[in-house]
# Entry
Amino acid sequence: MTTTGQYHTAEITLNVNGQPHSLQVRHHWTLLDVIREQLDLTGSKKGCDRGECGSCTVLLDGKPVYACQLLAVQVGGRPIITIEGLGDGTPTLEGMDTVQRAFLEEDGGQCGFCTPGFVMSTRALLNCNPNPTDEEIRQALSGNLCRCNAYGRILESVRAARQT
Ligand code: FES
Ligand code: FES
# Structure
């Protein structure tokens, strides 16, 4: 630990989307702020910043978590996947993860602000349960909110993704 001005900082290695990043971070910086502002991965959204909306959802050790509710210093060295880490990384329909493609083809959103969080929670669900029931889908996505009330289209998107 070092002290920069009035702030304590630490050197950590964040393992994001398979890439290690050596970073000097302040102890109070959240994982969400670091991946958005230090790594410039802005797909994860800051909606509420208080663990209510799920728009910041990323996968940590394969499980969906709210990136706004973790400090970056807590997760050094552990595998983190953001929305940018899905698919093969090419900006094509074929390069997308099947969940991303299903949300696109089924109009699984309106303004799209919540969509990265829903996609990440869906990916986590399908990784451990490839053919969930509607009830299992609703439970798995219960930590994600959509202010546009696009829940019907979101459910259709997940149904499409589970069939592929
Ligand atoms: S921004 Fe993290 S839960 Fe809303
Ligand atoms: S599509 Fe707008 S918040 Fe969900």
About this structure: The chain has five helices and six strands. Helices lie at 31-38, 98-105, 115-128, 134-140, 151-162. The beta strands are 2-4, 7-16, 19-26, 57-60, 63-66, 79-81.
